[in-house]
Design goal:
- The protein is an alpha+beta fold and 389 residues long.
- It has 2 domains: 191 residues, Beta-lactamase (3-Layer(aba) Sandwich); 150 residues, Beta-lactamase (3-Layer(aba) Sandwich), CATH 3.40.710.
- Helices cover 35% and strands 12% of the residues.
- The protein is built from 12 helices and 11 strands.
- The strands form 3 sheets. The chain has a 6-stranded antiparallel beta sheet, sandwiched between helices. The chain has a 3-stranded antiparallel beta sheet with strand order 3-5-4. A two-stranded antiparallel ribbon has the order 6-7.
- Strand 1 and strand 2 form a beta hairpin.
- Helix 8 crosses helix 9.
- The longest helix is centred in the N-terminal third of the chain and has 21 residues.
- The protein is globular and about 70 Å long.
- The N terminus is likely disordered.
C-alpha cells in the first residue's frame, strides 16, 4: 500500500523559534520579578510599638499605621471610608505593646465611646443581679409597665440586655430621645414607647434598652431619690465596684436632668480606660484575681442571643449574623472574639484565646465599618492563640 503523502510546512522550526520566546516572555518576566517593595515606615509608626511585642515589630507597626492611613489623604494611599483614627492601643496579656495617637490627642484625652456604654451597663446590671437587687428573668420593674393588661409587663431584663424588648423604635426616635424632646428624661421617653413586636421575638440594635437598664439601676440604688441622689448612687456604685478596681480613672458617664445615666450611647473615657475594660472582659470579670462580677455573668454576656447570633448581652460576637451584615469579621477572625462597639467606629475588640485587646477610637463615616474592620482584622491576625512571649 502506498503511504499517504507527507505535507511539509516550510521554515516551521524557524517560525517556532520566533514564536515560543514571545509566548513565554510574560511567564519568564513574572518568575524573575519580585513583589513591589513596601513604603518605609515613619519613625512615628515604629515608635508606637514596643521593642519586643511578641510578634514581628514592623508588621505590627505597619498594621497600626494602616488605621491612620487617611491622615495622609486618599491621593497618598489614605482610605476615605475608614475616616479619621484618633487613638489605637494593642494590649497583649495585660501589657500595652502598641499605642498611637493622632496629632492633637494623647493618653489623657477623653474620647466619646458611644455604644461602648452598653457593655459597661451590662456589667453593672450583672453586679446588681449578683447582689440580689435585680433578677434576670423576671419582669423589668418599670412602674409604667406594671399596669394591668399592659403587654410591656412581659419584658424582662434578659430581653433588654439582648436588645429584643420589642419596643418600637422608628427612624428619628433615638435622636429625639437623646437630643430632642426626651433629652431631660431619656428613660421616660424610651419606656413610653409601645410594643412593635412580642417581647423576645426580634432583635433590634437600639440605645433605648441600655438607657432603660440604667434607669432600673438608679431605681434600686436610690429608690426614693431625686435626680442628684440617683446620679450619685449610680456614679458611686460604678466607681467603687468597677472603675476604681479596673483603674478606669478617666471615665465620665453622661447623665440626664433626671439623674439617669445614658447607658446606651454616651460615655467618655481615655483609650487606656477602654483597653483596661477590654482586659477585664478578657479575664472574665476578674482583676488581679479578684472576681468583680461572676464568671457566669460574663459567660451569659458572650452567649449568642436567640434572635441574633452575632450579639450576646451588651457585646457583639464574631459570629455570622442572623440578619444583615456582620459587625466584626467572622470569616477571618477568632470565634471567641467579642467587642464593645460605638457609632462612628469606636471599638474595643477582645480575643481571649489570643490574650489580646485592641482599641480603636475615631470618626468613621456611615458605610465605613467594613473598611475599619478590615484594618482591625490585620492587627488581630498577627497574633496566634496561646501564651504571649
Amino acid at each position: 500500500m502506498q503511504s499517504p503523502p507527507r505535507f511539509r510546512i516550510p521554515c516551521a522550526r524557524r517560525w517556532l523559534a520566533h514564536i515560543v520566546p514571545v509566548a513565554l516572555a510574560p511567564a519568564l518576566f513574572a518568575c524573575s520579578s519580585s513583589p513591589p517593595a513596601q513604603a518605609p515606615l515613619s519613625p512615628q509608626a515604629l515608635a508606637a510599638v514596643v521593642d519586643d511585642p511578641g510578634v514581628n515589630r514592623e508588621s505590627l507597626a505597619r498594621a497600626v499605621d494602616g488605621l491612620f492611613a487617611d491622615t495622609a489623604g486618599q491621593e497618598a494611599g489614605g482610605d476615605r471610608q475608614l475616616g479619621e483614627t484618633r487613638a489605637v492601643i494593642v494590649m497583649r496579656a495585660g501589657r500595652i505593646i502598641a499605642e498611637r495617637y493622632a496629632p492633637g490627642y494623647h493618653e489623657n484625652t477623653r474620647f466619646a465611646g458611644g455604644g461602648i456604654a452598653r457593655s459597661i451597663t451590662a456589667v453593672m446590671i450583672g453586679m446588681l443581679v449578683s447582689d440580689g437587687r435585680l433578677r434576670l428573668n423576671e419582669t423589668a420593674p418599670v412602674p409604667a409597665w406594671q399596669r394591668p393588661g399592659d403587654p410591656r409587663g412581659e419584658i424582662t431584663l434578659r430581653h433588654l440586655l439582648q436588645m429584643r424588648s420589642g419596643l418600637r423604635e422608628e427612624p428619628g426616635d433615638e435622636a429625639r430621645m437623646l437630643f430632642g424632646a426626651g433629652r431631660d428624661d431619656m428613660a421616660g421617653a424610651a419606656e413610653d414607647q409601645p410594643l412593635a413586636a412580642e417581647p423576645g421575638a426580634r432583635f433590634q440594635d437600639d440605645a433605648a434598652s441600655g438607657i432603660i437598664l440604667a434607669d432600673l439601676a438608679a431605681r434600686v440604688l436610690a429608690p426614693a431619690g431625686d435626680a442628684d441622689a440617683r446620679r450619685r448612687a449610680v456614679a458611686d456604685y460604678l466607681r467603687t465596684r468597677l472603675f476604681e478596681p479596673v483603674l478606669m480613672r478617666g471615665i465620665v458617664p453622661s447623665y440626664d436632668a433626671r439623674g439617669t445615666m445614658n447607658g446606651g450611647a454616651m460615655i467618655d473615657a481615655t483609650a487606656r480606660d477602654f483597653v483596661r475594660f477590654g482586659e477585664f472582659l478578657r479575664n472574665r470579670g476578674a482583676v488581679h484575681g479578684a472576681q468583680l462580677v461572676p464568671r457566669q455573668w460574663i459567660d451569659f454576656m458572650v452567649s449568642p442571643s436567640p434572635r441574633e447570633k452575632q450579639y450576646g448581652a451588651g457585646v457583639w460576637l464574631n459570629r455570622a449574623p442572623t440578619t444583615g451584615d456582620a459587625r466584626l469579621f467572622p470569616q477571618a477572625g477568632p470565634r471567641d472574639m467579642l467587642a464593645a462597639l460605638g457609632d462612628g467606629g469606636q471599638a474595643v475588640l477582645v480575643a481571649p484565646a489570643r490574650k489580646l485587646v485592641v482599641v480603636r477610637l475615631g470618626a468613621t463615616p456611615p458605610g465605613g465599618d467594613a473598611a475599619l474592620m478590615g484594618r482591625l482584622r490585620d492587627i488581630v491576625s498577627l497574633f496566634a492563640s496561646g501564651p504571649a512571649r
